[in-house]
């Protein structure tokens, strides 16, 4: 793959921001005010995921399905990590900071898996990567 085109970077940041809004909507009440750490980090998480999973469209269908799931849990984990770090920075007596962070990550993963959001979020992750793949191909000047 070649270097990232500015258009691909912009759309990746936008996708991350939109996923941040989804995270805010789904986890805002559970995580409380620290959820904003994840929302602020979401565009960077989107860019990182888009870069890491670049070439999504060229993979076989089964691999794309698996990569979308991996991307969903990785992105959600990073979102929760940012929220957990913000939460851990609040001085609360007799609280183990690293445990607060781990709790946020595991709680978000648990929530995705066991509250019925997985059938909604997994295809949405697939769609996000498919759309970013189209932007990447068009930004490279191929397939116009």
User: What's the gyration radius in Å?
Assistant: 16 Å
Main β sheet profile: none
DSSP helical segment count: 5
Count of domains: 1
Helix content: over 70%
* Helical/strand content category: mainly alpha
Low-confidence stretches: none
How are helices and strands ordered from N to C?
HHHHH
* Strand elements, count: 0
Mean pLDDT score = 92
Measured by DSSP, the beta-strand proportion falls in under 5%
Q: How would the global form be characterised?
A: globular
N→C terminal distance: 18 Å
Quick synopsis:
The chain has 144 residues and is mainly alpha-helical. The protein has helices at 6-31, 35-52, 61-88, 97-114, 118-139.
Keywords summarizing the entry:
144 residues, 78% helix, mainly alpha
């Amino acid at each position: 793959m070649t270097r990232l085109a500015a258009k691909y970077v912009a759309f990746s940041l936008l996708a991350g921001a939109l996923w941040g809004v989804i995270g805010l909507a789904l986890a805002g009440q559970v995580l409380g005010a620290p959820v904003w750490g994840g929302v602020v980090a979401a565009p960077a998480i989107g860019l990182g995921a888009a870069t890491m999973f670049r070439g999504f469209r060229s993979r076989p269908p089964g691999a794309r399905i698996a990569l979308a799931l991996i991307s969903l849990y990785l992105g959600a984990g990073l979102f929760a990590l940012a929220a957990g770090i913000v939460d851990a920075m609040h001085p609360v007596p007799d609280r183990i900071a690293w445990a607060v962070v781990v709790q946020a990550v595991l709680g978000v993963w648990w929530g995705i898996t066991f509250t019925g959001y997985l059938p909604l979020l997994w295809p949405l992750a697939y769609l996000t990567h498919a759309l970013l793949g189209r932007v990447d191909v068009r930004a490279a000047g191929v397939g116009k």
